[in-house]
What we know:
This protein has 255 residues and is an alpha/beta fold.
Amino acid sequence: MNKALRKAVIAGNWKMNKTPAEAKELIEGIKPLVGGAGCGVVVCVPYVDLAAAMEATRGTNIGVGAENCHWEKSGAFTGEISADMLAAMGVQYVIIGHSERRTYFGETDVTVNKRVRAALDSGLTVILCVGEYLEQREQGVTSELVAMQTKIALGGVSKEELGKIIIAYEPVWAIGTGKTATAAQADEVCATIRATVKELYGEDSANALTVQYGGSMNAKNAAELLDQPNVDGGLIGGASLKPADFAEIVKAASR
């Protein structure tokens, strides 16, 4: 982390977990543990939990995000939710391009870009996910792939709008597997993302960009990962469902 240049942000990605009542209970458990955090704290929850999360976090330092949004404002898209709908609820953040959306639901670099555009137009802050599969890492194309994903996703995004984007490096092979990129591997790819943004927007914009690591970051390895100069926080999966573990990660990012 380099807090002199940019903000550290820890965001929980709850995935398909928790009913509204369970969401409220979990947030009530998190609140007293992160109240004095020296970093941004966000919980990204399933659509059905958004109202409960908004209510439970009111007046706290915890922001609320959704896990996806559609690129159209309205229309015949059964089961989808627009960015305008999220913004109307008071939601502040939205995850876009998570590998599970890409892998299981046909998300592409092009549709990721369209969703980014829609989210920015609605005033949301985007947590944009990029990352490689294991075979791509073994083929030695991680840097090229992540740079390409970043460039396509940011197509049409202005320098000013970049301030509403967080990029999360999520190696697909480390999500939900218990495997974690080494601190050096995480920093190397986060640095690649920053270099790509520098190429597109200039050094000041690159230095100001928050780049998270997401890929089995947990209470035990968070401090080492966050000690890296280009890792500015985390997009946390399983550990975000455990108040003590999530708080420990927030603590590591608050130093």
